[in-house]
Write a structure and sequence with these properties.
The complex is a heterodimer. Chain A is α+β, with helices and mostly antiparallel strands. Among the domains of chain A are: 122-160 and 172-203, no CATH class; 211-378, Immunoglobulin-like. Chain A has nine helices and ten strands. Chain A has helices at 2-8, 10-35, 42-79, 87-112, 124-157, 173-201, 313-320, 351-360, 367-378, and strands at residues 211-218, 221-226, 260-262, 265-268, 273-279, 284-288, 293-297, 303-307, 327-331, 344-349. A five-stranded mixed β-sheet of chain A has the order 3-2-1-5-8, with no helix packed on it. A five-stranded mixed β-sheet of chain A has the order 4-10-9-6-7. Chain B has two domains: 32-535, Cytochrome c oxidase-like, subunit I domain (Cytochrome C Oxidase, Chain A, Up-down Bundle); 567-627, no CATH class. Chain B is 63% helix and 1% strand. Chain B has 18 helices and two strands. Chain B has helices at 2-18, 26-31, 36-66, 73-79, 90-126, 134-153, 184-213, 226-257, 281-315, 322-335, 351-363, 365-379, 388-410, 413-419, 423-453, 459-485, 505-535, 608-627; strands at 268-269, 272-273. The interface between A and B is large, with 134 and 136 residues.
Chain lengths: 395, 628
């Protein structure tokens, strides 16, 4: 077995290890040496790494020594004619210990970390989602506790011995029927409630009195557009994009002339809001966890989410006891390197504050843009087809 | 002994007569082997190496999450331009999570798990000399190997590996300029995946045809061990769903390289209006998840099968409700094709469709619940032997419960609105398919190690490995649920950018150290594995006193598995602790005529002749007793 000898040879092995280590070191160092002229104290770094490697070896050594001690103890016991260590029993007890500490740990985690979850829902539909969540949590926690207790409890209680024989029980149709039907019934209830909640939440049909707001995602920011006095947003066409007309608003549509652009998503409380969600480059996702709201922004497929905010930012600050509290809009679909930093502040205010605020916002059709468009209008090159707010085939 | 030697000799002659053109060379024994047992070992070792690589990647990004503002000069030394100034760059962070996910899901838990155990166990447990087509089987491994190399080689390209997430949603993955990883790295990802899928199809067709056509005498479908059932149904899922991903990937390649617009429309990238029109990014998601969802069952079903077998053998009890276990596997397999939309509740898919997918998704919880309860009933009143394999199987059930229950939240479309793409999802699938599947796989490795390497693994190191990994995995993933409930999105590079997320930083540090501990525990496994291959205790033929056929094969490996005739099967594989029998196991190849004292009327349900004999025998016994 030449193959085995090759593996056995410690010299070859250590030579190989040294070669690999040296090789990677050299290879990586070349790239960095060229790029990084700043002198990093490499020796300090390696002592740090060496410390941890040493720590690991010490730990491994301890484990090995412990193992040897146990084996020696085991063998002496056996030599004296006594039984050695009963590993089966030890593992059974470990299962019981794990059950107890695990249950305590789960309870602690639920208690301490569970209380760090989102504050109460700041939207009307969110309340229904939260109650659905509570019901599901209670049901699943009951199942979780019972099944884990059974699993590790049985493992402990029925840990093997030579004296016993297991109970031959291949099947029991009655009990199998019971534990098929009960989960089926419970899940049916959850499905029915979930289905109706979902239908209600997702109803984003346009109604009179809805405040339409355009949210457009691109790498890596959100753009907002509010309707002007007419309450209507003008249509969009991505081909009209210019540095000034970032959303590609079509100004042939009269509704767009008074549209307003804004920096902060300010929402009047208790007003039905319909977010029209667009993306320009890749998929983004409008995620406003405090409102239990999420909808992907898909290029070429406008999506919507309709909701009613119920708690103003000021109220929420009082409730959470945090004077700096802000609602946020995150991007929640991987969209590139700065995906993690695509936030927008959302502020829920009273109706009066909202009117004040919106009056101060600048029109989307800024003066430079007007100039650009006048110039553009004169050239016949920009002939644009009607904007198409298509939906996907399955819609 | 001498008779055995003579026997051996005869077989060698026999084999030479048939396959004299096959000379055993180094190349066809150790590299391009067509022996299913050797291919299984190749899959296993490659899978383990890939698992260690993917685990290292995860520890790298865990370090970033725990210490987002700290500089580690060693990272720069090791990773060069990917970690300028000792901090992992945001783009490379995305690459890390993407490649970690891809390797773990496809290369470890699909190829490493199914590839190893379907290759090893299907022929040995159904009683076949090899796979239906050994040559295609060998190709399957080598395609997988090349796919692995290409996937890893993407770390060597200038702009780094693919970084659009393992789900590679276009347009991010379709537009090479949208992020560095979408350039050459994504091309390599796609090539690697196409080769990988080819490998899976070759493997899958082999597994299916072997199970359907090459079972030994007496091995009808209802006498197959649950491992074979699970691996068979997994192969069926793979063969039906993987081609759909190829379709999706090919269209993506067209969009990337040939200017088509299958997935692209209305795009303005970096201030440039792109000419794409008429495509739909949602189409890709449908195609991806039409594979992607069956894929998670491709991952978990073999783990279920392996755990069922290990639990029964080590509880010394028949698996409870064998038929229910098979039917629930079939139910899961069928339902897994009609639930893919639950990954897309908030993507812009029609909300009505979302409602329908929610119903099918929650239905799949019923067969899963049945399986769980049946495992618990298998443990009940058993005579449990805690081998490391058994512990891992118990751990698998525990993870499957913990992770499965949170699936009820995520399958509910209304709740998914706020949980989608948060850490809650991370916690859910790492428990239910990540940890559970890897534990099933480790259970399999510990249990069938003697069959593969003819030696035993060290039990006590196995115990250490189990407890550190088990506790570590819970410490890592349990707190993540609550981060998700606080609305913390996944795939975020640094939490420090957000006032509201800063309070989770301490939890992140905790999780990272738990992950490092669990990672170090894997070194105990690696040491145990390698050491036991060469220096482990030699095994006996049937070390676990198990019933299935593989333990009737000789310890020494033969290309052909059994010397002489393949054993005939007379009974199901779960006759453990049968009352009336002196031992607590009766292998499948023991005929009922040799176990008269333990036979039950139930054993002869479809065998009237046998039942008659059985009644005659019991009557005779009764008469004897009366005489006494």
């Amino acid at each position: 077995m030449g193959f085995k000898q090759l593996i056995n040879s410690k010299k070859t092995l250590s030579l190989f290890a040294a070669f690999v280590l040296f090789g990677t070191n050299q290879l990586m160092a070349q790239a960095t040496a060229a790029a990084d002229t700043a002198t990093v104290d490499k020796s300090a770094m390696w002592t740090g790494v060496g410390y941890y490697v040493l720590l690991f070896f010490v730990a491994s050594l301890c484990v090995a020594i412990l193992g040897k001690i146990l084996r020696v103890y085991d063998l002496t016991q056996k030599m004296q004619g006594k039984k050695g260590l009963n590993w089966n029993g030890i593992m059974g007890v470990c299962c019981a210990l794990f059950l107890i500490t695990g249950m305590y740990g789960a309870f602690w985690s639920l208690d301490v970390q569970g209380s760090m979850k989102l504050p109460e829902s700041a939207s009307a539909h969110g309340v229904a989602i939260d109650s659905m969540f509570t019901t599901t949590t209670i049901l699943t926690l009951i199942v979780f506790v019972i099944t884990q207790i059974c699993l590790f409890g049985f493992a402990f209680v029925y840990r093997g011995s030579d004296k016993r024989k297991a109970y031959f029980l291949p099947h029991n149709n009655l009990i199998e029927k019971i534990w098929t039907i009960i989960p089926a019934a419970v899940l049916t209830i959850l499905v029915v409630f979930g289905f109706f909640t979902w239908q209600k939440v997702e109803d984003s049909s346009q109604q009179k009195g809805d405040l339409n707001i355009d949210v457009t995602g691109h790498q890596f920011a959100w753009e907002l557009r509010y309707p002007g006095a007419d309450g209507k947003l003008g249509s969009l066409n991505f081909r009209l994009y210019t540095a000034l007309n970032k959303l590609g608003v079509d100004f042939k549509d009269r509704n767009s002339l008074d549209d307003i652009s804004a920096d902060t998503l300010v929402l009047p409380v208790h007003q039905s809001i319909r977010l029209n969600i667009h993306a320009q480059d890749v998929i983004h996702s409008v995620y406003m966890p405090h409102f239990r709201l999420q909808q992907n922004a898909v290029p070429g497929l406008p999506t919507f989410f309709k909701f009613v905010p119920t708690i103003t930012t000021a109220e929420m600050r009082r409730k959470t006891d945090n004077p700096n509290f802000e609602y946020l809009l995150y991007c929640n679909k991987i969209c590139g390197g700065a995906h993690y930093n695509m936030q927008k502040v959302v502020r829920v205010v009273t109706q009066a504050e909202y009117q004040d605020w919106i009056a101060k916002q600048k029109p989307y059709l800024s003066d430079p843009l007007k100039k650009e468009l006048h110039f553009a209008d004169a050239t016949p090159a920009v002939q644009v087809k009607a904007a198409s707010n298509r939906l996907a085939l399955n819609n | 002994m001498s008779t055995l030697a003579v026997h051996d000799h005869g077989v060698v002659h026999h084999e030479e007569g048939h396959e004299h053109h096959h000379k055993a060379t180094f190349l066809n024994t150790y590299v391009f082997s067509q022996d299913h047992k050797y291919i299984a070992k190749q899959f296993l070792v490659t899978g383990i190496i890939m698992a260690f690589i993917a685990m290292t990647l995860s520890i790298l990004f865990r370090i970033q999450l725990a210490y987002p503002d700290k500089s580690f000069p060693i990272l720069e030394t090791l990773l060069g331009r990917f970690a300028p100034n000792g901090r992992i760059s945001p783009d490379f962070y995305m690459s890390l999570v993407t490649i970690h996910g891809t390797i773990m899901v496809f290369f470890v838990l699909t190829a490493g798990l199914s590839g190893t155990f379907a290759n090893l166990l299907i022929p040995l447990q159904v009683g076949a000399r090899d796979m239906a087509s050994p040559f295609v089987n060998m190709l399957s491994y080598w395609f997988f190997f090349i796919a692995s190399l290409i996937m890893l080689s993407s770390f060597l390209v200038q702009k780094g590996p693919a970084s659009g997430g393992w789900t590679i949603y276009p347009p991010l993955s379709a537009l090479p300029k949208s992020m560095p990883g979408s350039d050459m790295g994504m091309t390599l990802w796609l090539i690697s995946m196409v080769l990988f899928i080819a490998s899976q199809l070759m493997g899958g067709i082999n597994y299916i045809s072997t199970v359907l056509n090459m079972r030994t005498k007496g091995m009808d479908l209802w006498k197959m061990p649950l491992t074979v059932w699970a691996l068979f149904l997994t192969a069926v899922l793979g063969v039906l769903s993987f081609p759909v991903l190829v379709a999706g990937v090919v269209l993506l390649i067209f969009d990337r390289s040939f200017g088509t617009s299958f997935y692209l429309s209305d795009i303005v990238l970096n201030g440039k209006v792109m000419p794409y029109e008429g495509g739909s990014p949602i189409l890709f998601q449908h195609l991806f998840w039409f594979l992607g969802h069956p894929e998670v069952y491709i991952v978990i079903m073999p783990a279920m099968g392996l755990s069922s077998e290990v639990l029964a053998v080590n509880s010394r009890k028949p698996i409870f409700g064998y038929h229910a276990m098979v039917y629930s596997l079939i139910g899961i397999a069928v339902l897994s094709f009609i639930v893919w939309g639950h990954h897309m509740f908030v993507t812009g898919m029609n909300p009505f469709l979302g409602g329908v997918f929610m119903i099918t998704t929650l239905i799949i919880a019923v067969p899963s619940a049945v399986k769980t309860f049946n495992w618990l009933a298998t443990l009940w009143r058993g005579n449990i032997r805690f081998t490391p394999a058994m512990l891992f199987a118990i751990g698998m059930v525990s993870f499957f419960i913990s992770g499965g229950l949170t699936g009820i939240f995520l399958g509910n479309a209304a709740l998914d609105i706020n949980l989608h793409d948060t850490y809650f999802v991370i916690a859910h699938f790492h428990l239910v398919m990540g940890s559970a599947a890897i534990f099933g796989m480790l259970a399999g490795v510990y249990h069938w190690f003697p069959k593969m390497y003819r030696r035993m693994m060290d039990e006590r190191l196995g115990y250490l490995h189990f407890w550190l990994t088990f506790i570590g995995a819970y410490l890592v993933f349990f707190p993540m649920h609550f981060m998700g409930l606080d609305g913390v999105p996944r795939r975020y590079y640094a939490f420090t950018e957000f006032e509201s997320m800063k309070r989770w930083l301490t939890v992140n540090v905790f999780i990272t150290w738990a992950a490092i501990m669990a990672g170090i525990a894997q070194l105990a496994f690696a040491y145990n594995f390698v050491h036991s291959i060469f220096w482990g205790k030699k095994t006996v033929q049937n070390p676990w006193n198990a019933n299935t056929l593989e333990w009737t094969a000789p310890i020494e490996h033969h290309h052909g598995n059994w010397i002489g005739e393949i054993p005939t099967v007379y009974r199901w594989p779960y006759d453990y602790s049968k009352p009336g029998h002196d031992e607590d196991f009766i292998p499948q190849n023991v005929p009922f005529s040799q176990t008269m004292s333990s036979n039950l009327p139930h054993d002869f349900e479809d065998n009237p002749g046998g039942l008659e004999e059985h009644t005659k025998w019991t009557n005779a016994q009764k008469a004897n007793e009366a005489v006494k």
